[in-house]
Write a structure and sequence with these properties.
By secondary structure, this protein is of the alpha+beta class. It contains 15 helices and 32 strands. A hairpin with an 8-residue loop joins strand 10 and strand 11. The structure holds one RNA strand.
RNA sequence: CGGGACGUAGCGCAGCCUGGUAGCGCACCUGCCUUGGGAGCAGGGGGCCGUGGGUUCGAAUCCCGCCGUCCCGACCA
């Protein structure tokens, strides 16, 4: 039971100028969050209630799946991160600081190191495995560019779970349990989502799935097959190797060096030489852990840096600087080509059947025509290095694919022995041999889940909470608090609803009806009971559904039972 | 880190170009009136104009530095 007049719930009529997406605007307007500084937010009572709802669903499903809750430190000593190798690898996202003794620490962006340290000290035998431990903690990642409010911020609440198994099949079972738990969690939250194959990123490991809440405002792209279950993150989506047709060297035309003054981009090259992007080979120079690598790709395709990084098994992959381009090719950027280049050369599958193509000449203001593999240069290998695009087909079954956008709310990883090996998390197996524990890790963004829910559930008036995440189930709105009959009925209803197990907000403010209606719609409470002078004479109140906007006059003494039933069925999955 | 913009009352903004010590809407306080979709009238409170320096008789306004915030980019040679 909560009286609106006493609640800290500052709503706003105006859209905050720094908020771009609906969820951010509405969370601020509805009095859920306030920004402290870039990427760091305070949760107000209404926002916190929603966060608690998400957390509770997560807790119940994690417990159901056999995981146990712990609470790990946010501040972590550098020693553990040095041991895992991530003190160097993690980069600027890791917020580091020193204590009074000048020892290095970080604020945990994730907790593999801490949990692995804990478990290696306490688990010695296969009899103590498997174990799955989770926590709900505040993480800190010093994002390059925080945006979209609570969706991409620096300090954020996350549930993270870690599984430890004695063997591969056990690890796969643990992974499957988490996958199933995540599916239940997001279903219970009332979200439309899709689990897609994903890259494992800096967390590392062998394979993973992302759970994406479908939304056009989402930052992640995905593809999915119209015919089979294949679905993948854009960065992960595979492209099969095309069938190679053996090229006949007798059809190779002689190489021609062409003067192409100030012609650099693929567009300019095509215009100047009147050819198609499909006739041009783009030579991209990357610095891979500091070493230059030339990557060849067809003119109109895009390199997928994640694929490149994985193929090269590199830590850091970035486009080479102008200086490096000059050093390796002997020409300024815009004229790089594979012939005579002084570094490794790899090529994308898109080039596998190309011949007599155009390429940079490694000489300022010159390009080459009629280049050919083998004759003019050799590539180390052909690989899947490009971004999937419209027109590509499903890598599994060959049928059409669709593109969509989503918000990453959950991610499950099979880590393997990456951390147990680096940090020596071992156990003694049945056969008396010391073995590495096989790990998995599983994250859910709590605040992001709430924000994603708003992206999917709002209208012109405000948020439309699905019952499971709603901060309150019902708002009771006497239209005029100076009318004793309305207030008396309101108090009684408020008591009855609360006794029926519902979460009720009683709008006892001395405000005009219109103000109360606007606020109720804005904060998105699923049900509103309006008490007005006309209906009260008949012993009735009006029950309004926020989502459908349908209104039904109902005898006061039947409202609690009706809403109890409605809410219960909405919570049941 | 590169580019752009913006910092003036709790919020949204004007004023700056053309220097003369600050204004509008919402919100807030008091009173009257009103009471089913963000009412009306009257009165009122609130601002080192981000910060430090400079120019000037005089700076929110012009110049320089710094800090902060937001947007775009940081993959196409």
């Amino acid at each position: 039971m909560m009286r609106y007049s006493e609640m800290f719930l500052p709503t706003g009529r105006e859209t905050p100028s720094d908020a771009e997406v609906a969820s951010h605007q509405l969370m601020v307007r509805a009095g859920m969050i306030r920004k402290l500084t870039s990427g760091i937010y305070s949760y107000l009572p209404l926002g916190l209630r929603v966060i608690r709802k998400v957390e509770q669903i997560v807790r119940e499903e994690m417990n159901r799946a056999g995981a146990q809750e712990v609470f790990l430190p946010a501040a972590q000593p550098s020693e553990l991160w040095i041991e895992s190798g991530r003190w160097e690898m993690y980069g600027k996202e890791l917020l580091r600081f020193k204590d009074r003794n000048m020892r290095d620490y970080c604020i945990g962006p994730t907790h593999e190191e801490v949990i692995t340290d804990l478990v290696r000290n306490e688990i010695q035998t296969y009899r103590q495995l498997p174990r799955n431990l989770y926590q709900i903690q505040t993480k800190f990642r010093d994002e390059i560019r925080p945006r979209f409010g609570v969706m991409r911020c620096r300090e954020f609440g996350m549930k993270d779970a870690y599984s430890f198994d004695a063997d591969e099949s056990g690890a796969e079972e643990s992974y499957r349990k988490m996958f199933d738990a995540y599916t239940r969690i997001f279903e219970r939250c009332g979200l439309g989502f899709r689990a897609v194959e994903a890259d494992s990123g800096s967390i590392g490991g062998s394979f993973s799935h992302e759970f994406l809440v479908t939304a056009d405002s989402g930052e992640d792209g995905m593809v999915y097959c119209i015919a089979c279950p294949y679905a993948a993150n854009l960065e992960k989506a595979e492209i099969p190797r095309p069938e190679a047709v053996k090229a006949d060297p007798s059809t190779f035309l002689p190489v021609e060096e062409v003067h192409t003054p100030n012609v650099r981009t693929i567009e300019e090259v095509c215009a100047f030489l009147s050819c198609k992007p499909g006739d041009v080979v783009k030579t991209l120079l990357f610095s891979c852990d500091g070493k230059p690598v030339a990557v060849l790709i067809q003119g109109e395709e895009e390199i997928n840096e994640i694929k490149l990084k994985n193929y090269l098994n590199a830590g850091v992959v970035e486009l080479a600087t102008d200086d490096v381009v000059l050093e390796v090719t002997g020409a300024p950027k815009g004229f790089a080509g594979a012939r005579g280049i002084k570094c490794r050369i790899i090529a994308d599958y898109s080039l596998i059947n190309m011949k007599n193509f155009v390429m940079g000449a490694n000489r300022e203001d010159y390009h080459l025509k009629n280049c050919n593999f083998g004759r003019d240069f050799k590539v180390e290998a052909f690989a899947d290095l490009r971004m999937i695009k419209e027109g590509d087909t499903c890598p599994r079954c060959g049928k059409d694919i669709r593109f969509a956008r989503g918000i990453e709310v959950g991610h499950v990883f099979k880590l393997g022995t990456k951390y147990s090996k680096a940090m020596k998390a071992t156990f003694l197996d049945r056969d008396g041999k010391e073995k590495l524990m096989i790990m998995g890790c599983y994250g859910i963004g709590i605040g992001r889940t709430a924000a994603a829910c708003i992206e999917q559930n709002h209208d012109e008036e405000g948020i439309v909470w699905p019952v499971p995440l709603a901060p309150f189930h019902v708002v009771v709105t006497p239209v005029n608090i100076n009318d004793g009959r309305l207030m008396e009925a309101g108090e009684r209803l408020y008591r009855e609803l609360t006794e029926a197990g519902l979460e009720v907000l009683f709008d006892d403010r001395d405000e005009r009806a219109g103000v109360k209606f606007k606020d109720a719609d804005l904060i998105g409470i699923p049900w509103r009971v309006t008490l007005g002078p006309k209906r009260i004479e008949e012993g009735k109140g009006e029950v309004r559904n926020r989502k459908t906007k349908s209104v039904e006059a109902m005898p006061l003494d039947g409202i609690a039972a009706f809403l109890k039933q409605e809410v219960a069925s909405a919570l049941d999955i």
